[in-house]
């Protein structure tokens, strides 16, 4: 037992003294390339979604789609309307289930079921992405990435400042909880889901 303990304690010293061991970026190293991390002045939409715990269900669904690439790209600007976790949990039919149930009499394969589920999620996520900057002005209508799906801005009190987020709602009843600016867009955390 003492011998095993002695060997375990001596192992790091024996490994460090190996003459064949090569130190990276040591003095005299001939390595030409050094690692340079990618930095930006502001976090991306993906960064914000990663740290926003109230958006975790939405982001979990979004990462299953090709649309999640938009959250990291720097050559596009998107506005995403993110239903908070409570809003997603309150949905009668979850995003992967689609808007209407599959008839029980119709039999489909597991592959067909998976394909439908993936398409349902992509449709739902795309209904929450506006491929441009938006303004919170009464009656403004924006096309989402989901074909035929638009988002309308309404003001609870049109006399108040249009840009005041507590005054604006989407599609009549989805209130803004918070707004986060990213290097490639804006994230509006809202208290309801946009109907796909």
UniProtKB/TrEMBL annotation:
InterPro entries named among the record's database cross-references: FAS1_dom_sf (IPR036378), FAS1_domain (IPR000782), Mug57-like (IPR040200)
Keywords: Signal
Signal peptide: 1-16
Pfam family name, one: Fasciclin
Alphabetized PROSITE patterns for the sequence: FAS1
Domain called FAS1: residue spans: 42-194
The name this protein goes by in its record: FAS1 domain-containing protein
């Amino acid at each position: 037992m003492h011998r095993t303990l002695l060997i375990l304690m001596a192992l790091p010293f024996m490994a460090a003294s190996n003459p064949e061991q090569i130190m990276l970026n040591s003095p005299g190293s001939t390595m030409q390339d050094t690692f340079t991390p990618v930095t930006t002045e502001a976090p991306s939409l993906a960064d914000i979604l990663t740290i926003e715990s109230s958006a975790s269900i939405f982001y979990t669904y979004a990462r299953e789609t090709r649309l999640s690439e938009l959250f990291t790209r720097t050559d596009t600007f998107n506005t995403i309307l993110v239903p908070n976790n409570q809003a997603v949990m309150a949905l009668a039919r979850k995003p992967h289930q689609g808007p209407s149930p599959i008839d029980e009499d119709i039999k489909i394969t597991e592959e067909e079921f998976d394909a439908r589920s993936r398409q349902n999620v992509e449709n739902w996520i795309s209904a929450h992405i506006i491929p441009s900057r938006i303004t919170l002005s009464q009656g403004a209508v924006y096309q989402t990435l989901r074909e035929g799906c638009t988002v309308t801005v309404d003001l609870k009190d049109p006399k108040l400042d249009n840009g005041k987020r507590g005054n604006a709602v989407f599609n009549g009843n989805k209130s803004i909880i918070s707004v986060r600016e990213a290097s490639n867009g804006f994230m509006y955390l809202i208290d309801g889901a946009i109907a796909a």
